[in-house]
Amino acid sequence: MNKQIVYIAYLIVFFVIFNFSYGFTDWIASWQMWHWYMVILSVVFVGLIYAKLKQNERKNRLWAQIREAEEMRMQLSQLLIFEQLNHLDETTFDYFLKQVFGLKGFESIDDAPVGSGIDLLMWSKGAKVALKWFKTAPLMSHIYKDKATAAQAGEAVGIKQVREAFGAMKDAEVAAQRLIVISTGSFDEAATRFASRNGIELMDGGDFYESLENLREPAGSEGYDGMGEAPFLVNI
Predict the structure, then answer these.
(1) pLDDT at residue 132 in the model
(2) Alpha-helical regions (H) of the chain
(3) What is the model's pTM?
């Protein structure tokens, strides 16, 4: 506020000096009435533009805050689900995934051969599908302010793991036509590019948790009788 008063004082001093040197008030006094209409119209027009800019600025700031709050809400939701899933041992988590993909329309979902590097084998529309999962903590960018701490808290699945799963899918013991790799956290950029080049389907934490939320809704859930929530999704 004090700075604004100083600026106004400078403006008044400048106007007095300018008027003394160039006779500004005499020039204004000689104006016709239509000149004043133009001045008033210009001032109103500038004022409206300024008000609109301020309104847009406030709106953009509000939307940015809403997006940040929604992102934080999603991250917290993912963290809560991950903490629940993280307590499941491998056998129970495999069973959980069998139920999930069974509701998504996959058939004949079985455990993969021991030591094959694949977790589940299933069929979809006549194609054999291999599934590999990694339980990793989601990246909490809004919770951890320090980037190093955030990286440690949410370590992404890398190209090495995805490449190994791809090689296991091609092995004669598995011989699948499709590969789905699930991470309850995220994939790094190299892994994403490798998957894109080789037709590998990645499901990161966001996609995975969203699919779980969709399965909570009875409407349109294939293979579900619509009576309440799916039993394996209650209190997971």
Answers:
(1) 94
(2) 2-22, 24-29, 33-85, 90-103, 147-153, 159-170, 189-198, 205-215
(3) 0.59
